[in-house]
């Protein structure tokens, strides 16, 4: 019975995902020496299961297998079982996902690994059903088979696992330096075009992921080329995603991905990082096109995050589940009768016509609200928008009474960094002090709560406790946030912090042999394979974001060392970028300013003067993705001047703008009108 469930070792953990498994009959261990020592002592292999709290198929495997006594009996008898939260330990996840992809050609979660007590894997799978299904071994039979092989053919297993580890380590430590040329940028664009879905937007068929960093690359490549077909790809994708059910039209925010090519049926989980990255893309699209719909979408996404994902302490939670009451998507679905009963016949019928609601439904007899094929939404009058929003609010208030999906309330330094970037960028671009304040609050939260006694960053925070050494992503994403706050506020304290944490990142994570960065700190636990996350996949890699940060710091400080580190990083990726170009779109966004040289705007003048503020506002309203901006105020203390190699002076005591390329500046501009003209004509 439910009340008789006995807790296992996971009950002492902080991770919401691990705690979900704390009353399984499977005798789970957290990752650690105790589990490996027990496996060695009892001469057992290890069953490693990796997932995360908002993962639908992780829930399925938990309910179907890990809650089942017969499955637990087999696993406990023949294996030592370890549970890992991939968001808590991305290093472990990366190592064993690399093995899975190398050995099976695929990966996903839950990730199921059988390995030795020396952490060497020899079998990989993702979701495993309880019983045999469509030629796939169920977990009971699979466990029995692996036990038998372990007992009778162990040498073969050990030889195989040794070779796999050797190959993976060799691929990490071998340098493949190759220079990247400008052609790689057009090659990347062509590669994306090949997979572009001209009907619905996005890349590939199904399942279809937003991949916001690819859209960010395309916007930068459009800035370089002014090719209208590039912008058409971005816009069709942005409007296609917003029109689909992947966007929550009642409470806002984007789901993880769409299971179909139309963006209609989402995998209903919502992740902080997706919404952070997508809100930034929509903000950039607004600056490029001036179309208000992109501004409105960006604001909706940010409003969702501030409402539902922000902690009272200022940081941001990780995710919301796909399931509620054990049913995927239940919280988000509607029948037409429900809508009519809440809104009334007339308003309900109109609302249903706008959002594609029918009696039959479009998902398991119910409706996912969507705007697919509804071309007139952008052309609505303000009165129609208000009418639609009044109905939406009524449905939102009714939906709030439902059982909400579970929220993963751990706060990751890395993902908070991404949200800080978006809040600061949207704050300055859309003139929202509220967003900038939220960015600063989140940064202050990280700096005060997710650091150790020496001030080094830690990986995450939950229930009053910060844990685990920071990863490369923790540093690079957070540094990116600090730099963006600096750009939004011109507060040089954030630039100083960016420099401090970048220098610390170089010390802790740089692989001097190859020029790129490890995922783990040199002071952290050593895994069987040294983890390096190179590819831009669901998220930009820590290496790619580090490259962008280095270019920004070089532009701001003129310190050549940052350019050298960036150069080494680009060259370390050269060969693999050419071979798998679509996996490096964010890295190539950082490569553009490296290739073209630095671009910066320096405003010399009193920060409080109206002329200085107007000049800064003009910069913020312009799409200048590869240009940094500085305010240099001669009235400030001299120590702040030490941040910059070159110091610009006002002309005739007036606020003066200097437009600089490769640290060579044009003649100072004191006319607001002339500066605006220069920005409008800036290519």
Give an account of the 3D structure.
This protein has 683 residues and is of the alpha+beta class. It folds into four domains: 2-173, Glutaredoxin (3-Layer(aba) Sandwich); 183-325 and 407-596, Glycosyltransferase; 330-399, no CATH class; 599-680, Glutaredoxin. Helix content is 50%, strand content 10%. The protein is built from 25 helices and 19 strands. A five-stranded mixed β-sheet has the order 1-3-2-4-5, sandwiched between helices. A four-stranded mixed β-sheet has the order 17-16-18-19, sandwiched between helices. The protein has a three-stranded antiparallel β-sheet with strand order 8-9-12. The longest helix is centred in the N-terminal third of the chain and has 20 residues, at 154-173.
Our measurement of the CA-to-CA distance between the termini, rounded to an integer number of angstroms, reads 69 Å
Count of structural domains: 4
Lateral strand order in the biggest sheet: 1-3-2-4-5
The helicity comes to 40-55%
Q: Mind telling me the C-alpha Rg?
A: 26 Å
Largest sheet: 5 strands, mixed
Task: Compute the number of strand runs.
Answer: 19
The CATH topology of the largest domain is what?
Answer: Glycosyltransferase
Mean pLDDT: 93
Q: What's the CATH C level of the largest domain?
A: Mainly Alpha
Taken from the alpha-carbon principal axes, the silhouette is globular
Number of helices: 25
Task: State the secondary-structure class.
Answer: alpha+beta
Q: Assess the beta-strand content as a share of residues.
A: 5-15%
